[in-house]
Amino acid sequence: MLTILILTPFLSALGVLLPVRKVFRLKLFLAVCLAHSLMVASFWSRLPASEYHGFLVLDSLGLILLSIISFLFLSVSFFMVGYFPREPGRNRVFVTCLLLLLSTMTLVAVSYHFGLLWVAIEATTLFSAPLISFHRTRQSLQATWRYLLICSVGIALALLGTFFLGLAAHDVHTLLLPALLKGASLLSVNWMKLSIIFFIVGYGCKMGLAPTHSWKPEAYGEAPGMVGVIMAGALTQCSFLALLRIAQICNKTGLTGFYSSILIVSGVLSLIVPALFILGERNIKRAFAYSSIEHMGILVLGLGLGPVGLFGALFHMINNALAKVIMFLTAGSVAQKYGSCSADEVKGVIHVYPLTGVFLIAALLAGTGVFPFATFHSELLILNASIISRHYLLAAIGVICLAVMFIGIGKIVLDVIHGQPKKPLLLPKENLFMNVAIAVAIVLLMSIGLWMPSALEKLLHNAVALIGAV
Amino acid sequence: MTSWVDASCIIIVFLSLIILSNYRVAAMIRVFVIQSFVLGLLPFFMHASCISGRDVTISLVTIILKAALVPYILFWAIRHVSMRSEIKPIIGFGASVIFGAMVIACAFWVSLSLKLPGQPFSDLILPCSLSTVLLGFMIMVTRTRAVTQVLGYLILENGIFLFAISLSDVMPVLIEIGILLDIFVAVFIMAIVVNHINEEFEKAGETF
Q1: Given an 8 Å threshold on Cβ–Cβ distance, is A133 in contact with B196?
Q2: Domain parsing of chain B, residue ranges
Q3: Shortest CA distance to A305 belongs to which of A265, A345, A272, A362?
């Protein structure tokens, strides 16, 4: 089953490369995403068997990520049906890269060997790079270059971390996760520590954690809205899965304290840095990119704060993904209508496009964690965890930074919504496909904010137990 | 065959230093070819007494990808970008060699306190791979041309790979090939992006 799940998008990517009609590519992409999500939905009732001698295994952690990926691609493919007919450019490379990305991300979610995990995550970096420069402007190409270079070096450091882990596991003779957990007492602690540092720097760079976040505003600012969704919602969380896998090992080897302290420091930095930069920002997508850095900080912080925080972090993975769908798809829809994303040029959205205006307000509330959106609950859980573990200063910093982010994003979104409506150049109508994709995400995020389904709660509890936080 | 392994490690570090001190891009790529070739031969030197199919595969894949295909792409890129030499590096060539030597000293000093578990093939593998990683890093941050930065990335990868070759039992051969393929695709995509950027910049009459 898992092999089929990985190979279907991969083979269709090859099919998309053929000279076929633009609409056919979009329809094929939608069909593949639909099939992918149906298969993933079937895994909720029964997990598939492991494949290739335990290299490909789907556990509850992987299932959370896989469901996120699947849903994100489905809504993006739906959105694209409405988006692309209005774009003059070709979509061959774009759809091919998206399909390859779906295939490699699926591989990330199910790989149980640290080497394979690295190969898959590096592949996601490579296939996402061409998506950023879809519009081929000078700025977007420079953003692509910066993204490629920073993330390649970061990921190379994670590779070094993987080999250090291999040294630590010299007596275990493998990097398969179950074997490492079983032989945790045989791991050499010093090499483990070194490898943890390299893993956090490497995969943290890919997540966009604070000192290495500089590629994020540029890449998300230049990329089309759909790419922002995939990158902020799925790609970054793929690297977070790697950090979760390492947490699994750390909890077995008694390195939890060491790991948590690094995670907390980088989490706090990732909360503070975007709060410093958000207030002067005039571009909607760049503002949302800063929000993404902040959400990554929240995730990492939750992982560092024990079982309650971990539950919050896993819940936040889902909420963050849904919030990113709302934010970046709305931004993409605004960008297409106005031909720009700058708050200086886009004005009076609510007068010209009432529905998109409402979506923008929803994006503001979902992205900054306001009730009834579920982001509120997961952020509250993580703040709660910091108080339970007596990190009072941490909770205070968290609340202040979240408030600043709310003000910053609120200012730019309200600026865009109100004001004197300038006549946009294109004046295209609202599109049903685009709006449905956004509306579904809003309804979902609101409903899990009001009532958590028992299946989801069970899955999250299973995942927390799997990591074995103490 | 320990002496051969030692010699290869030292050659790899020296070649990185040569790339660091060079300013002609074509010459840098040629030196990189030699470095990758030496790296590709290392598995044979390490297991000279009993060469397994695994060693042959890793060695062949390394040489084909890193010493043939990657340089081919890089030469293609500099032909299209019509760039011959590295201009205005952030640190001058003389100064970078001195810094490079300091970096190597640092790497040796750090690796004194790190002890490899089991029976390592050679004591030079760890310090030499760390030096190569750091030198690659230096090339990336001190050079301004895109192709030179890609070369820096590749040297960094070579350093990591030097380290990886000594760990034969934890990585299945398919995954190691996957790692090499990923690096190859990375260079391929980087070359394409450099080409696109150059087209955009040429419209404006500038160089990148």
Answers
A1: yes
A2: 2-203
A3: A265
